[in-house]
């Protein structure tokens, strides 16, 4: 039985040959077969679970990014005023409160006490509400801090003073000069956030019983299903590389000074 098992998965071959075979199959889109569930391919598992993680994470990212940027703008324009203090309190809470604590509190109040939302599950729109809120909370906090810090730095630049001296209106200055130059840190942070969207949150998917890629990853680690673990790790790494490449292109849209002209920067 052991010999047949090793022969089926190529484990009876030298380590270098195993590696070359895996790379060859990977380039053809074949990431192997689950050791725990024979017949279930790793590629099929990723194809079935990544859209679920992408849906939850994508909605959370869009909401978190929009709210976070708006709060950051308010905090920067109202520096050392009560709106700034409120935004910073939200940001500190979003960074310091552990995810599992926030999840537990939401499940207790909205599911047990009020009975408004299901504590876990998947398949209906209401199952998205709490996971999205929890995932977007830290995103709101992160981008609010980033955009505030970046805008305050831009506000101190000489070209902002020049724009005001020319008589440009404040909304025009904020939109045309401050906002565009303040988005560089946001673009820098996007690769991690976008990759997280697809790969999901391990804690969130496990607690809310969401059949996403992170939930299967945890199951594979617990069961020593190395094919799934390796395949999903390769997928996440490849996804991150692609997102970083797209982000480099996005830099040229946000900041034209980064564009390559005539082979020189």
Strand portion: under 5%
* Main beta sheet strand tally, sense and closure: none
Mean pLDDT: 80
How many β-strand stretches? 0
Shape: flat
Terminal CA distance reads: 61 Å
Assign a percent range to the helix content. over 70%
Overall SS class: mainly alpha
Instruction: Provide the low-confidence segments as ranges.
Output: none
**Rg on CA atoms, Å:** 23 Å
Oligomer: single chain
Following the backbone from N to C, one meets helices and strands in this order, namely HHHHHHHHHHHH
Number of helices: 12
Q: Can you characterise this structure?
A:
With 265 residues, this protein is an all-alpha fold. Helix 3 runs antiparallel to helix 4 and helix 6 (126-155) crosses helix 8 (170-182). It has helices spanning 2-8, 15-27, 42-77, 82-96, 99-113, 126-155, 158-165, 170-182, 184-199, 202-207, 213-222, 226-254. The protein is flat.
Reconstruct the topology from this structure.
Layout: H1 2-8, H2 15-27, H3 42-77, H4 82-96, H5 99-113, H6 126-155, H7 158-165, H8 170-182, H9 184-199, H10 202-207, H11 213-222, H12 226-254
Helix pairs in contact: 3-4, 3-6, 3-9, 3-12, 4-6, 5-6, 6-8, 6-9, 7-8, 9-12, 11-12
């Amino acid at each position: 039985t052991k010999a047949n098992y090793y022969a089926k998965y190529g484990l009876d071959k030298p380590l270098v040959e195993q590696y070359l075979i895996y790379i060859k199959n990977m380039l053809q889109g074949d990431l192997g077969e689950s050791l725990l569930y024979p017949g279930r391919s790793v590629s099929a598992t990723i194809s079935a679970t990544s859209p679920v993680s992408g849906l939850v994470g994508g909605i959370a990212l869009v909401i978190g990014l929009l709210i976070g940027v708006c709060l950051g703008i308010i905090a920067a324009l109202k520096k050392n005023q009560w709106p700034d203090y409120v935004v910073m309190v939200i940001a500190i809470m979003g960074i310091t409160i552990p995810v599992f604590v926030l999840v537990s509190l939401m499940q207790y109040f909205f599911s047990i006490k009020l009975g408004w939302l299901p504590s876990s599950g998947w398949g209906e729109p209401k199952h998205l509400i709490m996971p999205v809120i929890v995932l977007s909370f830290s995103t709101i906090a992160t981008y609010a801090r980033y955009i505030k810090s970046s805008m305050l730095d831009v506000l101190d630049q000489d070209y902002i003073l020049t724009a005001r001296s020319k008589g440009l209106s404040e909304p025009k200055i904020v939109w045309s000069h401050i906002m565009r130059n303040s988005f560089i840190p946001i673009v820098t942070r996007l690769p991690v956030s976008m990759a997280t969207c697809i790969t999901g949150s391990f804690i969130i998917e496990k607690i809310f019983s969401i059949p996403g890629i992170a939930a299967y990853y945890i199951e594979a680690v617990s069961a020593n299903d190395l094919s799934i673990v390796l395949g999903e790790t390769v997928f996440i790494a490849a996804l991150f590389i692609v997102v970083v490449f797209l982000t480099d292109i996005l830099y040229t849209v946000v900041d034209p000074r980064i564009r390559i002209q005539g082979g020189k920067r």
